[in-house]
Amino acid sequence: MLDAISSLLHPHGLLLRGAFHPPEGGTIVLVGNAGPALWQAFSRARRAEDRPHELDAWTRRVMEPVAAALGARVVFPFEGPPYHPFQRWAMAAEGVQPSPVGVLLHPQYGPWHAYRAALLFEDRLPLPEHRPAPHPCDSCAAKPCLAACPVSAFTAEGYDVAACRAHVRSEAGAACRSRGCLARHACPVGEAYAPEQAAFHMAAFAGLS
Ligand code: B12
């Protein structure tokens, strides 16, 4: 079944990120992206009339038929509030743990990955055993992510969203807008999104798209 799901996702640049059995029964399968494939597939199929939420609209268009073909329900990270707990699900589904700046760190992709949908199955699908990998942040003494933010938005008290967004929208925030979050870039793990994709996500975050 997992192979069948992966094959349906592949043409759209989407990955089966992991799956788990929630206590309430059934199976939750997480779908997401890492690497350049999602951006390539989305760029071919994007529609201007979907603005300002082009990626969300594309994700629905792609995932609803996939879910129907599999007899699953599909839910999305952008539905809410209240939001579906994608980060909690991700920690249960695959070897990711929070980085000091909040985004979940993947042992291979670093901070450069995201979740796009979850397929909810009523059945308890057989799943391969989960082999936990070491969390890269545990052996990262320097924690360059914490020092890289130009407005020190990441503190012991949490993430200062207002300071981050104001900076990204300002003239001084040009590097964050064009390259993507500098704290994520400071992470030594994983390969950053291409500038065009990074700029797209930052514009959406800053309300500039
Ligand atoms: C609201 C939201 C935001 C808000 C507020 C975020 C905030 N930190 O306060 C804004 C708009 C500011 C935002 C910004 C960004 N976001 Co955001 N956001 C969300 C959204 C839609 C809902 C989060 C939520 O409230 N969930 C509800 C709770 C109940 O869910 P939960 O999974 O149980 O939450 C648990 C985890 O979050 C965990 N947790 C989170 N951080 C930490 C840190 C520590 C130390 C620990 C122990 C636990 C922990 O604890 C929570 C309680 O159990 C999610 C999508 C989703 N549905 O989850 C994306 C999501 C979290 N965002 C994501 C991203 C990538 C970003 C940005 C980097 C986007 C960008 N600019 O490129 C930025 C920066 C975020 C940052 N550095 O923290 C990704 C994270 C992927 C990942 N690798 O982890 C998500 C999952 C969306 C996705 N499509 O994948 N975001």
Structure description:
This protein is of the alpha+beta class. It has two domains: 2-134, no CATH class; 137-206, no CATH class. 38% of the residues lie in helices and 16% in strands. The chain contains nine helices and eight strands. It has helices at residues 2-9, 37-45, 54-70, 86-93, 144-148, 161-169, 174-179, 182-186, 195-206, and strands at 15-20, 27-34, 73-75, 97-98, 104-105, 113-121, 154-155, 158-159. A four-stranded antiparallel β-sheet has the order 1-2-6-3, with helices on both faces. Strands 4-5 form a two-stranded antiparallel ribbon. The chain is globular. The N and C termini lie far apart (38 Å). Cobalamin binds next to α4, β6 and α9.
Question: What is the gist of this entry?
Answer:
By secondary structure, the chain is of the alpha+beta class. It is built from 9 helices and 8 strands.
Total beta-strand segments: 8
- Hetero groups: cobalamin
Instruction: Give the DSSP E fraction (strand runs of 2 or more residues).
Output: 15-25%
pLDDT < 50 runs, ≥5 residues: none
Query: What is the radius of gyration computed over CA atoms, rounded to a whole number of angstroms?
Result: 17 Å
Q: Determine the oligomeric state from the structure.
A: single chain
User: What order do the helices and strands follow?
Assistant: HEEHHEHEEEHEEHHHH
| Largest sheet entry | 4 strands, antiparallel
Measured as a percent range, the helix fraction is 25-40%
Averaging pLDDT over every residue, what do you get? Answer: 95
Number of helices: 9
Distance between the termini: 38 Å
Domain module count = 2
Shape: globular
Overall SS class = alpha+beta
Query: Main sheet: which strands, in order across?
Result: 1-2-6-3
